[in-house]
Amino acid sequence: MASERPSTPPPAAAPAASSQPPLTPEQVKRIEINRLKAKALRSQREAEAQQQATNLAAGQKRPHSAVSRSDVAPNQRDARTSATLAPSAGKDGTPAPSRPLDSIQPARNFTKYVEYDFSKMTDTKGGFLTVEDDPHNKALHARSSGEEKPAHMTLKEWERHQLLKKLREQKSGPFEPAISADMSKNKTCRECGSMEVDWQWLDVFGCAVCNKCKDEYPEKYSLLTKTEAREDYMLTDPELKDEELLPHLERPNPHKSTWNNMMLFLRYQVEEYAFSKKWGSAEKLDEAYEKREEDKKKRKNEKFKSKLQELKKRTRVEAYKRSRQQGGGGGDFGDDLRKGGKHEHVWGRTVEGDDGVGLKTCVECGMQVEELEF
């Protein structure tokens, strides 16, 4: 039986003729006119964009219409439309806002909100206050003292400025005074005669001494704090604050930066004033110091005795109250509640009081009575 070979498929049928009718001459003419109008509009827009680009200054932004050519959907905002093109709709006759955000009004609770500029405020540890609130507050004017970096200076320039300021205050480096050719005009150390003196100490204390001698003679050139000068040499605050009497050097407080600056005094100047002018000698200063310590100890003992006497009185009153509450019957003032018997006062010697009236005190219970003599 002979095998059947696959036959070639029949050729595809020819496509049927289009059901749409051919364009009429009028339609062809209208299509050509629209094409020419679109081409002319495109050429006009390109010419306007080129003219605006040539007229723009350096760094000026081009308008959105020069960049975008696409049509914007009616439900989206067109950035090319200006406020003048927006429809002026409103009950009060005001033009409608050109942006959706302009129509958003704040809530009634936030209409009185005040926006403060925190960059111009200083934390005074008591709340944020402006300079107008308290013009006499030094803490608020701390920024005007020149401690903050100016905006036009870089960090490197600010560090260099601070370094030069420190050297200028210490009179060191390029700001150190020059040595004169006349040797009699040069300042020399009072100990070794060297010309390498500390110029800051010379300006503050009026003492010409070099750094080497300051380390070799600490008994003369060491610095004392205000507390040490007041406690050890018995100087008062008005004396320590008088710069003509005792000049001092100010340094930042090492314990806390917000505290007042330390006042440092030169030891030999403090001793010279205390020994020669105020107390007369070191021995008299020691005597005054010992007397002050004795008075301090005496006041401490008197305070302790007065508190002990008050404690005894409170203890007696509390014991009497407890006995009354327990139904013991109690007794009169001065009764011995421990033994259950009546207390008999043992009066001491009559002492005249401040008002001239005699006072007698019981030796055992401490009761006092006034005694009048006729």
Task: Summarize the entry for a quick read.
With 374 residues, the protein is mainly α. It has helices at residues 25-55, 155-170, 199-204, 211-216, 218-221, 226-232, 237-241, 267-278, 282-325, and strands at 122-123, 128-129, 223-224, 249-251, 262-266, 351-352, 358-361, 368-371. The strands form three sheets. A three-stranded antiparallel β-sheet has the order 3-5-4.
Question: Can you give a write-up of this model?
Answer:
This protein has 374 residues and is mostly helical. Helix content is 35%, strand content 6%. The longest helix has 44 residues, at 282-325.
Q: Fraction of residues in helices? A: 25-40%
Largest sheet strand order: 3-5-4
Q: What is the straight-line distance between the termini? A: 175 Å
Number of helices: 9
Query: What is the radius of gyration computed over CA atoms, rounded to a whole number of angstroms?
Result: 50 Å
Low-confidence sequence ranges: 82-88
**Biggest β-sheet description:** 3 strands, antiparallel
What is the ordering of alpha helices and beta strands? HEEHHHHEHHEEHHEEE
The total of beta strands comes to: 8
Strand proportion, as a percent range, falls in 5-15%
Overall residue-averaged pLDDT value: 75
- Structural shape: elongated
- Helix and strand composition category: mainly alpha
